[in-house]
Amino acid sequence: MAELERPERLQIMLNADELAALENWRFEKRMPSRSAAVRELLRRGLASDGFLTAEQGVKSQDFGILPGAGNGDGAADGSSD
User: Fold this and answer.
1) Average pLDDT of the chain to the nearest whole number
2) Percent of the chain residues past pLDDT 70, beyond the cut
3) Within the chain, where are the H helices?
4) Distance between CA atoms of 6 and 57, rounded to whole angstroms?
5) Cβ atoms 26, 35 nearer than 8 A
6) Beta carbons within 8 Å of 54's beta carbon, 6+ residues apart
7) Span between the terminal Cα atoms of the chain, in Å
8) How many beta carbons lie within 10 A of that of residue 39, not counting itself?
9) What is the pLDDT of residue 5?
10) Which of 68, 67, 41 is nearest to 52 (CA)?
11) pLDDT tens across 13-48, in order?
């Protein structure tokens, strides 16, 4: 069996209004899934509080919260040193 790119699972509970807001934002932004939308909202929230800095050249397939997450090098900033 192939190793999962994101092996950690986070389950959240939403009320109907919160889910509707998430779905409306997701479709407006053309996000591929609820999970991608939640990761993008987390990334944006963390960045607005100064925990992350925006990086140039991020692809739409890279809906990760931390830069470099999942690339196997263990570096959160995308570098390998």
Assistant:
1) 75
2) 60
3) 16-28, 34-48
4) 21
5) no
6) 47
7) 30
8) 20
9) 82
10) 67
11) 999 999 999 999 999 999 999 999 999 999 898 888
